[in-house]
Amino acid sequence: MEHLQGDFGRLLLSFALGMAVGLEREISDKPAGLRTNVLICLGSTLFTLVSLRMAGPLTDPTRIAAQVVSGIGFLGAGAIMREGEHVTGLTTAATIFVVAAIGMAVGFGFSRLACICAVATLMVQVVLARMDMLVDHMRRRYTFRIVSDPDEKAIHAIEKILRLNGIHVMSSKVMKRNSLYHSEWATTGPTEKQARVAHELLQSTHVMEVTY
Questions:
Q1: Would you say the pTM of this structure is higher than 0.70?
Q2: Range list for CATH 3.30.70.260 in the chain
Q3: Stretch 96-112: mean pLDDT
């Protein structure tokens, strides 16, 4: 009976911590939301408790619990998606991994450590997310596709506009098609400057078409 009460308390704490992290994910409209994170945390705790209960003098108490680490990796991998040049779901996969670790910590009785980790996870998701958005705004990536005169002067004019606006060119390529230059410029820089570049390119006498 004493074991049952202790296990119930750990499962209850696991539920609460999983719900705290999951609620933030749900509010942020992420794929792995409230129910997913609660179930992952509860499942990890239960596997750990079962592992402890089944342990004997010649049995390693971490054998079952250790499989949670490898098993949760498959679940996290399913959340990672590639969309063109962008990879999404990495933060969701990392959150799934951490929530499983929180559940295991609760199951092994490291309740204080689990609570600290849950608070740290929420800080990362809320505070660092805002910093990430700021950095992303300052270094937004665009690909300019430009149709221009079949003249080297046109390429030099494009390079000059990008340089004067402080836009960093990561890569570029130029093709000649239908007696015109079709060039692509992969750039990074603030959104406002990128928009200014597009406007100045359209004003250039060498440029006929700009998409980005």
A1: no
A2: 139-211
A3: 94
